[in-house]
Amino acid sequence: MNFDGDGLSLILKYPPLIDVAKERLFQDQKWGTGRDFPDGVGDEEYCRLEQKYKLFNETNFRWHQINWAGIFLEEVYEAMAVQTDLHPDQLEKELIQVCAVAVNWIEAIRRRKVCHISTSQEEKT
Question: What is the number of domains present in the chain?
Protein backbone atom coordinates (compact mmCIF):
# COMPACT_ATOMS: atom_id res chain seq x y z
CA MET A 1 0.00 0.00 0.00
CA ASN A 2 1.36 3.41 -0.93
CA PHE A 3 0.58 6.66 0.79
CA ASP A 4 0.80 9.73 -1.42
CA GLY A 5 -0.24 12.35 1.17
CA ASP A 6 1.85 14.37 3.57
CA GLY A 7 2.66 13.51 7.19
CA LEU A 8 -0.15 15.66 8.58
CA SER A 9 -2.74 13.81 6.48
CA LEU A 10 -1.37 10.53 7.77
CA ILE A 11 -1.56 11.65 11.40
CA LEU A 12 -5.10 12.92 10.92
CA LYS A 13 -6.09 9.57 9.39
CA TYR A 14 -4.63 7.70 12.38
CA PRO A 15 -5.30 9.80 15.53
CA PRO A 16 -3.38 7.48 17.90
CA LEU A 17 -0.21 8.66 16.14
CA ILE A 18 -0.73 12.05 17.78
CA ASP A 19 -0.70 10.36 21.18
CA VAL A 20 2.41 8.39 20.20
CA ALA A 21 4.17 11.64 19.22
CA LYS A 22 3.19 13.22 22.56
CA GLU A 23 4.57 10.20 24.43
CA ARG A 24 7.84 10.45 22.48
CA LEU A 25 8.15 14.10 23.49
CA PHE A 26 7.53 13.12 27.12
CA GLN A 27 10.21 10.40 26.89
CA ASP A 28 12.72 12.87 25.46
CA GLN A 29 11.96 15.33 28.27
CA LYS A 30 12.28 12.63 30.91
CA TRP A 31 15.28 10.66 29.60
CA GLY A 32 16.93 13.08 27.16
CA THR A 33 17.49 12.67 23.44
CA GLY A 34 20.07 10.63 21.59
CA ARG A 35 19.94 7.54 23.78
CA ASP A 36 21.85 4.71 22.15
CA PHE A 37 21.21 1.54 24.13
CA PRO A 38 22.13 -1.91 22.79
CA ASP A 39 19.25 -3.69 21.03
CA GLY A 40 19.31 -6.81 23.22
CA VAL A 41 17.59 -8.98 20.62
CA GLY A 42 18.28 -12.35 19.02
CA ASP A 43 18.12 -14.50 22.14
CA GLU A 44 17.03 -18.13 21.64
CA GLU A 45 14.20 -17.65 24.15
CA TYR A 46 12.76 -14.88 21.95
CA CYS A 47 12.90 -17.23 18.95
CA ARG A 48 10.99 -19.86 20.96
CA LEU A 49 8.36 -17.34 22.00
CA GLU A 50 8.05 -16.08 18.42
CA GLN A 51 7.19 -19.61 17.26
CA LYS A 52 4.84 -20.11 20.21
CA TYR A 53 2.80 -17.00 19.37
CA LYS A 54 2.73 -17.74 15.64
CA LEU A 55 1.21 -21.13 16.40
CA PHE A 56 -1.06 -19.62 19.06
CA ASN A 57 -2.43 -17.07 16.57
CA GLU A 58 -2.77 -19.56 13.72
CA THR A 59 -4.79 -21.85 15.99
CA ASN A 60 -6.92 -19.03 17.39
CA PHE A 61 -7.56 -17.68 13.90
CA ARG A 62 -8.81 -21.08 12.74
CA TRP A 63 -11.16 -21.24 15.74
CA HIS A 64 -12.26 -17.58 15.34
CA GLN A 65 -10.67 -16.67 18.67
CA ILE A 66 -7.87 -14.39 17.49
CA ASN A 67 -7.20 -11.46 19.82
CA TRP A 68 -5.13 -8.29 19.91
CA ALA A 69 -2.83 -9.47 22.69
CA GLY A 70 -1.78 -12.53 20.71
CA ILE A 71 -1.23 -10.54 17.52
CA PHE A 72 0.77 -7.91 19.38
CA LEU A 73 2.96 -10.45 21.18
CA GLU A 74 3.66 -12.31 17.94
CA GLU A 75 4.92 -9.07 16.40
CA VAL A 76 6.95 -8.19 19.51
CA TYR A 77 8.64 -11.58 19.59
CA GLU A 78 9.29 -11.48 15.84
CA ALA A 79 11.21 -8.25 16.48
CA MET A 80 12.95 -9.64 19.56
CA ALA A 81 14.06 -12.76 17.67
CA VAL A 82 15.85 -10.85 14.89
CA GLN A 83 19.52 -11.67 14.54
CA THR A 84 20.80 -8.16 13.80
CA ASP A 85 24.28 -9.39 12.90
CA LEU A 86 22.71 -11.45 10.07
CA HIS A 87 19.80 -9.13 9.17
CA PRO A 88 20.68 -5.57 10.20
CA ASP A 89 17.64 -3.93 8.55
CA GLN A 90 15.09 -6.50 9.74
CA LEU A 91 14.76 -5.20 13.30
CA GLU A 92 13.58 -1.79 12.12
CA LYS A 93 10.98 -3.39 9.83
CA GLU A 94 9.72 -5.63 12.63
CA LEU A 95 9.50 -2.73 15.10
CA ILE A 96 7.43 -0.74 12.61
CA GLN A 97 5.05 -3.71 12.43
CA VAL A 98 4.86 -3.73 16.25
CA CYS A 99 3.96 -0.04 16.21
CA ALA A 100 1.36 -0.55 13.47
CA VAL A 101 -0.36 -3.32 15.43
CA ALA A 102 -0.30 -1.18 18.59
CA VAL A 103 -1.95 1.73 16.74
CA ASN A 104 -4.52 -0.63 15.22
CA TRP A 105 -5.28 -2.06 18.66
CA ILE A 106 -5.69 1.45 20.13
CA GLU A 107 -8.11 2.28 17.31
CA ALA A 108 -10.13 -0.86 18.12
CA ILE A 109 -10.27 0.12 21.82
CA ARG A 110 -11.47 3.61 20.88
CA ARG A 111 -14.12 2.21 18.51
CA ARG A 112 -15.45 0.05 21.35
CA LYS A 113 -15.61 3.10 23.60
CA VAL A 114 -17.62 5.00 20.97
CA CYS A 115 -19.98 2.02 20.53
CA HIS A 116 -20.36 1.70 24.30
CA ILE A 117 -21.14 5.40 24.68
CA SER A 118 -23.66 5.25 21.81
CA THR A 119 -25.35 2.20 23.31
CA SER A 120 -25.46 3.80 26.77
CA GLN A 121 -27.03 6.97 25.38
CA GLU A 122 -29.64 4.98 23.45
CA GLU A 123 -30.58 3.06 26.59
CA LYS A 124 -31.21 6.34 28.47
CA THR A 125 -33.71 7.57 25.89
Answer: 1
Within a domain: 107 = yes
Domain that holds residue 72: 38-124
3-class secondary-structure state, position 88: coil
pLDDT tens by residue, 29-47 = 998 888 888 999 999 999 9
Least Cα distance to 80 among 45, 124, 107 occurs for: 45
Share of the chain above pLDDT 70, in %: 87
List CB contacts of 10: < 8 A, sequence separation 6 or more.
3, 17
**What is the number of residues in the chain?**
125
Q: Residue 3: inside a domain, yes or no? A: no
| pLDDT at 105 exceeding the cut of 70 | yes
Instruction: Give a yes or no: residue 16 inside a domain.
Output: no
Q: What is the mean pLDDT of residues 15-22?
A: 91
Contacts of 20 (CB under 8 A, 6+ apart): 99, 103
